[in-house]
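Long-time lurker, first post. I've been practising inverse folding by hand and with some scripts of my own, and I keep getting stuck on stretches where the structure tokens seem ambiguous. Below is the full token string for one chain I'm working on. Before anyone asks, I'm not after the true native sequence, just a reasonable design that respects the backbone. If someone could post their per-position residues I'd love to compare against what I wrote down in my notebook.
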């Protein structure tokens, strides 16, 4: 999940009705569902690469909390299955910039929460194209989705 958030590739965000937001990442065409209806992660759900994400709107900011992320997937550090992320996506007033502030917390691998920031410029002409004839990393499936 952290790798997808901070990859230098494209990000597409779309609303799916009132109860879901869909994120599509340019790297490996990963797809993520953000549940906007407050549902909790099922107790018997297996951890996954992108975890279980629940979101809400705070004024114009998309606020997302994610848990259930598979352990030992690295983004410059190894983390446990206790990793939790909090993301805040905010657009600039002119709509040309999207800011992300993400907080990663894991009592097993971090002494304190790690706060990372990123921004994207609006690029309506950019396309996320399928990976063709590429070898995917071990454990990554096409259209990765929780």
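-- Answer (accepted) --
I ran through it position by position. Result:
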């Amino acid at each position: 999940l952290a790798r997808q958030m901070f990859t230098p590739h494209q990000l597409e965000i779309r609303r799916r009705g009132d109860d879901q937001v869909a994120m599509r990442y340019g790297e490996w065409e990963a797809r993520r569902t953000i549940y906007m209806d407050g549902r909790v992660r099922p107790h018997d759900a297996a951890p996954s690469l992108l975890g279980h994400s629940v979101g809400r709107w705070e004024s114009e900011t998309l606020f997302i909390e994610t848990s259930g992320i598979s352990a030992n997937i690295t983004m410059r550090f190894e983390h446990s299955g206790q990793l939790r992320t909090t993301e805040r996506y905010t657009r600039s007033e002119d709509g040309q910039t999207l800011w992300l502030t993400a907080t990663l917390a894991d009592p097993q691998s971090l002494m304190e929460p790690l706060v990372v920031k990123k921004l994207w410029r609006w690029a309506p002409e950019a396309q996320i194209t399928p990976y063709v004839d590429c070898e995917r990393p071990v454990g990554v499936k096409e259209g990765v989705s929780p």
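A couple of notes from the structure itself: The mean pLDDT is 85. The chain is about 5% helix and 40% strand. Happy to go over any region you disagree with.
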